[in-house]
Write a structure and sequence with these properties.
510 residues, alpha+beta, Amidase signature (AS) enzymes, two-stranded antiparallel ribbon, 36% helix, globular
Length: 510
């Protein structure tokens, strides 16, 4: 029987309902996603390794379970892409690094175990920058990921493959992770939703420095309801993440009281007082705010003291990279690409005094930021300071003609929020001045993840009914005609198996 390939265009919540009511089968859903991947992945390189055979076996098992009326997990039968920083049993996990180009883990990590336990079907790994370092998804193992709206432009990073796969309707769900914006930035560039969760809400065992709140894992979806669904399946206490905590939430947003936008007090900022932002993006943001202002009880510009945020982030980020890359660097520094190596070497030069200052400054930033929520329910900002740029450019070098001091300084709009530790999501809000997706960063109160998602759903409903604010969709016919060469990967011979077996401490920080 022919597979209805339009099933791949449906979101996770809708597909779950269709499968639960036996209107479609998990096998049909999976085959529609595989067909979409095979047709469009050569155009944008969102997926790297795939596991279609295992996925088909799992889809058939779910189909039988449905036929027997067996109790199933929250994500049962839903195809998912897993970011190539997460260990997946029997499936290549390279971190985008030549050091791990033949690495096949023996077991899933915590996040993947939870997703599989909830019934999600892993179809493959989504592309990342080398060791997750940077917000342009390109590496010497798999090459670059192109933006579905224009494959000559970058998809953001480090969860760029995931965001591109979702925007191109290859899968209904993808996993992401975020340190300085690695989940929010690609969500913004590709016109989908990405949630940076509160530290510990979704446990992660791959952080060597388990007590730091800088890095989190979180859900990505095409809309807020899909994002909620994945969060519900993954949140909660785990013995291998010291920041994790007990947390329960409804499986669905259905039946929950909606948020009345007219009662919300909203603050907004173009730049947090310290971030470089392109003049055109400032104008786009002002226009979006002007369109939204009448929805809220109040909507006003905020002021917050972030004067030392850049130096603070430099240090706490470098600490994480020293922890994760020390073994690999000491073994062979030349085996690391320029971004991971720069991160390690920056951190290795730090003193104990630097680290103590940075951790104390992050505490001060946290405390100052929380006082804003005595006055506001949400804070809005642009997610990124520029429109998508060509992926051939490794990183953004200047804004408004002013040179940036390092390769990740253009992530400042998101990493200042990382320091505050508040939950934040990027949601699509129309297009920018170049007709590329514009992402609005929506920030909630401390540990207010569910409150944030409920408000974002109400905001999303308004935007979807507003022509210039609704989520943009890529032109798939134009994408099919694309012949962009997504950068032939550099050839590196695989390391001996023994080297991989002893390289666990070389896992990435983000």
């Amino acid at each position: 029987m022919p597979i209805p390939h339009e099933l791949a265009d449906k979101g996770a919540v809708e597909l779950k309902a269709l499968m639960d009511t036996r209107q479609v089968s998990p096998v049909e859903v999976l085959e529609a996603c595989i067909a979409r991947i095979e047709a469009y992945n050569p155009k944008i390189n969102a997926f790297c390794a795939t596991s279609f055979d295992r996925a088909r076996d799992e889809a058939r098992a779910v189909e039988k379970a449905i036929g027997r009326n067996e109790q199933r997990g929250l994500l049962s039968g839903l195809p998912i892409g897993i970011k190539d920083l997460e260990e997946t049993a029997g499936l290549l996990t390279t971190y985008g690094s030549p050091l791990f180009r033949a690495n096949v883990p023996a077991q899933d990590n915590q996040l993947v175990r939870r997703l599989r336990a909830a019934g999600a079907i892993v179809v493959g790994k989504t592309n990342v920058p080398e060791m997750g370092a940077g917000a342009n998804t390109r590496n010497p193992v798999w090459g670059a990921t192109g933006n579905p709206f224009n494959p000559r432009l970058n998809a953001g990073g480090s969860s760029g493959g995931a965001a591109a796969a979702l925007a191109a309707n290859m899968v209904p769900l993808c996993s992401g992770s975020d340190t300085g914006g690695s989940l929010r930035i690609p969500a913004a560039k590709c016109g989908i939703v990405g949630l940076r969760t509160s530290p510990g809400l979704v446990p992660s065992e791959r952080k060597l420095l388990g007590w730091t709140p800088i890095s989190v894992v979180g859900p990505m979806g095409r809309d807020v309801a899909d994002t909620w669904l994945q969060l519900a399946a993954t949140a909660g206490l785990a013995p291998n993440d010291p920041l994790s905590y007990d947390f329960s939430m409804p499986a669905s947003m259905d039946g929950l009281a909606g948020v009345d936008l007219s009662r919300l007090r909203v603050g907004y900022t173009e730049d947090f007082g310290v971030c470089d932002v392109d003049d055109d993006i400032r104008r786009v943001f002002r226009n979006k705010i002007a369109s939204l202002k009448g929805l809220f009880a109040s909507c006003e510009a905020i002021e917050v003291d972030m004067q030392h945020a850049h130096r603070c982030f430099d240090v706490v980020r470098a600490e994480a990279f020293v922890g994760s890359l020390q073994a690999a660097y000491e073994k062979d520094p030349d085996a690391l690409g320029p971004n991971p190596r720069a991160n390690y070497e920056m951190g290795a030069r730090l003193s104990l005094k630097d680290c103590v200052w940075a951790n104390a400054e992050q505490t001060r930033i946290f405390r100052r930021f929380q006082t804003l929520f005595n006055r506001y329910d949400l804070i809005l900002s642009p997610t990124t300071p520029v429109s998508a740029f060509p992926w051939e450019e490794p990183y953004l070098k200047s804004i408004n003609g002013i040179e940036l001091e390092n390769y990740y300084r253009w992530l400042a709009l998101t990493y200042v929020v990382t320091l505050a530790t508040n939950p934040a999501l990027s949601m699509p809000m129309g297009v920018d001045h170049l007709a590329m997706p514009f992402g609005m960063q929506v920030i909630g109160r401390f540990r207010g993840d569910l409150e944030l998602l409920l408000a974002a759903r109400a905001l999303e409903a308004h935007c979807e009914a507003t022509t210039d604010l609704c989520r943009p969709r890529p032109d798939m016919a134009a994408l099919a005609r694309s012949e962009v060469d997504l950068w032939t990967p550099v050839t590196h011979p695989p390391l001996p198996a023994a080297d991989h077996a002893t390289s666990a401490d070389g896992r990435p920080a983000v």
